[in-house]
Design brief:
seven-stranded parallel beta sheet, Rossmann fold, 2 domains, 406 residues, 41% helix, six-stranded parallel beta sheet
């Protein structure tokens, strides 16, 4: 099968980037001819290589760069789209989605759109008036005419159904690459780098430093732990967004945690995996998540997790891989303390999480599931035909009006 993947851009710190890269590489391993179109900008972070076995073309954003208009992308789509069986578009609100969806309709090529959580209430309420206007003018049309909308979890699918759009929704989660055994960086290496003694427990957050990630809740929860005499260290890993690292450091200072909290900046590759392995518990106190790939990454390393119920991870609770709790500092502190104080329970949770990832969330399994969706679409079948997933009902039977998040 000849597959075109379209995404606005590639960046090391971008969750959608790693989705597209992982999916594309594993589709190619399964014999598909995969091409990736994306934009490039001045100062692009090119540390992340192009996906293996995938033909990648990057096009300059030429006008209205915030929207991502690209004459080169427009011309490539017009000239080459007929060479593909299907297109998979990984964004909304931006020109690459507008251009790809429009050209697919013109040339009769079926396409899928993955909104990547953009219609979650918290995300949709940002720049609400502008987004609602754009939605009515263009994005609704793009979604209505798609062969399917790709959700990565059932909660996200439910929110997409609330748009009142009749397009089928397929639920295919994000995959994880299982850790290699010959990593260059070990957990002990990370402890030495951070100056953390072997007997000290590590509470790890890894992700963007952004208000939506609930780091204010995490600092408050860790302050409760610290007041109880915990010897744990809080390690916060990730790139800052809009200068939020300054506000975060101020919160840490006001909480009296400067000696107990380390903010490291971004980690990648083996360093990132070693950070998960070094942690006694991984925490994600997000206010909204359409999936939360870091949860699966932590579980793949055998680390128990404590995450908010705003992340769609019922699997954590049902498989006893950690705690899935309300977004509340007291409840987060209690769940973290329970894991830190019960090492045998923590070890079992870590093992449960690793098995969960191996049986459900590897990229090989996810790519096979996505390929089945593509094959259904190209054959004119319901995208969910043969998936055997009762959690992914057809959106045409679940339309309700979208309530205003404004």
């Amino acid at each position: 099968m000849r597959i075109l993947q379209v995404i606005p851009g590639l960046g090391n710190s971008s969750g959608p980037t790693h989705v597209v890269v992982g999916l594309s590489e594993h589709l190619a391993r399964q014999g598909c001819a995969v091409t990736l179109y994306c934009l490039k900008y001045d100062g692009d972070d090119r540390v992340l290589p192009d996906p293996a076995w995938v033909s990648t073309s990057r096009f300059a954003a030429t006008l209205v760069k915030r929207w991502g208009y690209s004459q080169g992308l427009k011309e490539a789509l017009k000239a080459n789209l007929r060479n593909f069986d299907i297109a998979h578009v990984h964004s909304v609100w931006l020109y690459p989605t507008f251009a790809a969806a429009r050209e697919c309709r013109r040339q009769g090529v079926p396409y899928l759109i993955r909104p990547a959580g953009s219609f979650r209430p918290v995300a949709f309420s940002t720049n609400c008036t502008l987004k609602r206007l754009y939605f009515q003018l263009w994005e609704r049309w793009n979604l209505e005419n798609a062969a399917a909308i790709h959700a990565t979890s059932e909660p996200e699918a439910a929110e997409l159904r609330a748009l009142g759009i009749g397009t089928p929704i397929c639920v295919v989660p994000i995959g994880v690459t299982l850790p290699a055994t010959d990593r260059k960086t070990t957990a002990d290496d990370m402890r030495r780098r951070w100056g953390i003694e072997p007997e000290e427990k590590i509470v790890l957050y890894l992700g963007r430093l952004h208000p939506i990630k609930g780091l204010d809740i995490l600092v408050a929860a860790f302050a409760r732990l610290n007041s109880g005499g915990s010897r744990a260290k809080l390690v916060i890993v990730g790139p800052a967004t809009s200068g939020y690292d300054r506000e975060l450091k101020m919160r840490v200072r006001k909480a009296g945690l400067e000696e107990k909290c380390l903010i490291t900046g971004e980690l990648r590759g083996d360093d990132k995996r070693a950070a998960y392995e070094a942690a006694s518990v991984f925490v994600l106190p997000s206010r909204t998540e359409n999936f939360g790939i870091v949860v699966a990454e932590a579980m793949a390393m055998g680390t128990p997790v404590v995450i908010s119920r705003e992340a769609p991870w019922l699997d954590v609770e049902s498989h006893n891989a950690g705690s899935w709790v309300d977004l509340d500092a007291e409840k987060f502190a209690a769940a973290i303390a329970d894991i830190l104080e019960n090492p045998d329970m923590a070890a079992q949770m870590g093992e449960n999480g690793r098995r969960l990832v191996e049986t459900k969330y590897t990229w090989d399994r996810i790519a096979k599931r996505m390929l089945k969706v593509y094959e259904n679409v190209v054959a004119g079948k319901d995208p969910n035909y043969g998936l055997g997933d009762p959690e992914a009902p057809n959106a045409r039977d679940n339309r309700v009006p979208l309530e205003s998040p404004c």
